[in-house]
Design brief:
By secondary structure, the chain is an alpha/beta fold. It is built from 11 helices and 13 strands. Strands 5-4-1-6-11-8-12-10-9 form a 9-stranded mixed sheet. It has a two-stranded antiparallel sheet with strand order 2-3. It starts with a strand and ends with a helix. 39% of the residues are buried. It comes from Halostreptopolyspora alba.
Length: 298
């Protein structure tokens, strides 16, 4: 496997007005845009060919992963080597390609836009809203499961019952490996009492190329959109020589949902507190700030 697909065509309405002219994927986590963490994860897993599925008003994503010669020269003239390196880093991460999703028809349609680029190879899908801890090596584990078992692989995280309606949820069967399950059903955002389990799909997938043929025949589902979950549900019912089955990797590490305002802010604070150049100043202030708000006079 060498290819990763990053759907980045969403409108980012939950972050308006900030995302009126700035893609939500470019919102910073301290001083690096969220989407760069996602590309770095793909590269760390050995996937150096990254296809961004973008839409209108997403040009800044392309600019970020391109060279900025005037800025580089200005930094070089000031002998600001550290910032020069940070600016050039994003353009040297991976071989990044782009394709446009002409209209917002759902995640399944966004993935289908990658068909010509991916071809007949298995590939990864990384959603830009989800940042996975760099120490977790989730994507590497999923690639390993694909290489050993075939089919497609989804990342699963156990959520509270009241949260199942926010995710695609999987029906699962145990395997000989504690963190690997066989997926026998997938339902997109089910009501709490209809969810097949509390194991929700988070934004990492390894897909067999057979998913493209299925997506082309998948009718619009929940929300009038073409759902990747529906296509994977079809593959879960198939035999190995026909594009199936689907496995799940149970993930119990740290995941950051930057598509939610409160979680986005928590992510920024946590990442900042882990930075040696910021923690010494930020942590004492944060403790004081929390103490003031916890006091009876607050």
């Amino acid at each position: 496997m060498t290819k990763a697909v990053v759907p980045a065509a969403g409108l980012g309405t939950r972050f308006l007005p900030a995302t009126k002219a700035t893609p939500k994927e470019m919102l910073p986590i301290v001083d690096k845009p969220a989407i760069q963490y996602v590309v770095e994860e793909a590269v760390a897993a050995g996937l150096g060919d990254v296809l961004m599925v973008t839409g209108r008003s997403k040009r800044s994503i392309e600019d970020h992963f391109d060279r900025a010669y005037e800025l580089e020269e200005a930094l070089r003239a000031k002998d600001d080597i550290q910032r020069l390196y940070s600016v050039r880093e994003s353009s040297e991460l991976a071989q990044v390609h782009y394709v446009r999703q002409g209209e917002p028809r759902g995640l399944g349609h966004a993935v289908l836009c990658a068909d010509a680029h991916v071809g007949h190879e298995p590939f990864a899908i990384l959603l830009g809203d989800d940042i996975i801890s760099e120490h977790a090596a989730l994507l590497k584990r999923m690639i390993d499961v694909r290489e050993r078992y075939g089919g497609s692989v989804v990342a699963l995280m156990e959520v509270e019952p009241e949260q199942v309606s926010l995710y695609g949820c999987a029906g699962i069967e145990e395997t000989a490996e504690e963190d690997v399950v066989l997926v026998n059903d997938l339902v997109e955002k089910p009501p709490r009492d209809e969810a097949p389990s509390r194991w929700a799909i988070i934004g990492r997938y390894i897909c067999d190329p057979a998913v493209f043929a299925v997506l082309r025949k998948t009718p619009p589902g929940r929300g009038g959109e073409i759902q990747l979950t529906d296509a994977l549900r079809e593959l879960a019912r198939r035999e190995p020589d026909d594009g199936g089955p689907v496995y799940g990797v149970r993930f119990r590490g740290r995941r950051y949902d930057t598509g939610n305002k409160a979680d986005y802010l928590r992510t920024v604070v946590e990442f900042a507190c882990e930075r040696p150049d910021l923690a010494a100043e930020l942590l004492p202030w944060l403790r004081e700030f929390v103490a003031e708000h916890d006091s009876p006079e607050a």
